[in-house]
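Q: Convert this sequence to structure tokens.
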Amino acid sequence: MKTGGNIFAVIQARTGSSRLPAKVLRSIVGLPMFELMVERIKRAAKLDGIILATTDNPRDDGLEVLSRKLDILYYRGSEDDVLNRVLTAAQVNGVDHIVELWGDNVLIDPVILDAAITFYRNNDFDCVGTTLKPSFPLGMSTLIFSTELLKAVDKVAVDPVYREHVSNYIYTHQDQYSVGHLPCSSEFFRPDIRLTVDEPPDFELVSRIFQALYPVNKEFGLKDIIKLLDTNPELIAINKSVKQRRPVAP
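A:
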């Protein structure tokens, strides 16, 4: 059981995506996608704060401005060495435990975040993930680990893929680290649903979800999303052909 130390969400986000440029600043229901994501994360009761980890590229100035507006912390670092960017973001802000998040997961459910944090706190795993194996929909992804663990990984993870994908070294070396998976109830066991935003069809689906649910209840959760999609199967079909290109984070 981990009883001490603060825990912060560290969101990796940038505007340089090749498949869907500046997606995190694109408007959904009149607000930037990143702002909607932060709005949802702020409802997680177990978090001590939120940090944006973006790049020092001038094209990401808009993300810094938005972070100031949303009153969250931010750190700007290497565009390619994301591991170092996230680690330094945590270190300069005195973070003990990191909840790793990605800017393309705008629909992340704060209830699932709180459940993952509780599971991490109550067990002795080095890290805890939510989608390392088929369970929650892709887009409910997080990995939780200590800053000290990432500091140790930083010294040995030299392959470029490990520098680009922060937690990849941890969950691909389970002979060295103990990785726990957040138990998933049958209600949320929907690995067939894709809720992350990598390509235009993903953005269309997520936009349609917000357009249907946000005006009625800004605090809608995964249960509401699943009900909407099951009631309107044509929505799931929107991004069914999109193939996941980057490693699926746990």
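The chain has one domain: 7-189.
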